[in-house]
Amino acid sequence: MFKPLLALLLTFFAWTSHSASKPLFSPSELQNIEKLKLDSRVFLDQIVELKKQDQNYFKHVLENTSREDLAALKKFLPKVLDLMEKSEEAVWMKNTLDKLSKE
Q: What tens digit of pLDDT does each residue of 2-33 get?
């Protein structure tokens, strides 16, 4: 998340703070900055894909769980998630459980 912003800021300052005849970065350095931006996009895409896989696995587990176990899971999991630190994963798990229990 910070790499694209850093690359954008560095590129902006490279072109605005120096004259056009004397750029702050060489062409190879600018290529490296662009590569960082592309790498960060790839990582973000991979994170999104992993979250989709996690959601599909979670859904599969819920679909193959007995009604009694599912009722217990719905009863106790939100309490456990509330006790967890308010992390992105905990919020995502809670939202996924709510969404899947409505289906």
A: 677 777 777 777 666 655 566 677 888 888 88
Residue from 54, 43, 41 nearest 92 by CA: 54
Report H helices in the chain. 2-16, 27-63, 67-83, 88-102
Residue extents of the structural domains in the chain: 1-48, 65-103
* The pair of three-digit structure tokens given for residue 32, joined into one six-digit string: 């490296």
What is the pTM assigned to this prediction?
Answer: 0.35
Spatial contact of 24 and 18, defined as CB atoms under 8 Å apart: yes
Contact 33, 7 (CB under 8 A): yes
What is the rounded distance in angstroms from the CA atom of residue 51 to the CA atom of residue 89? 9
Query: 74: buried, middle or exposed (CB in 10 Å: 19+, 13-18, 0-12)?
Result: middle
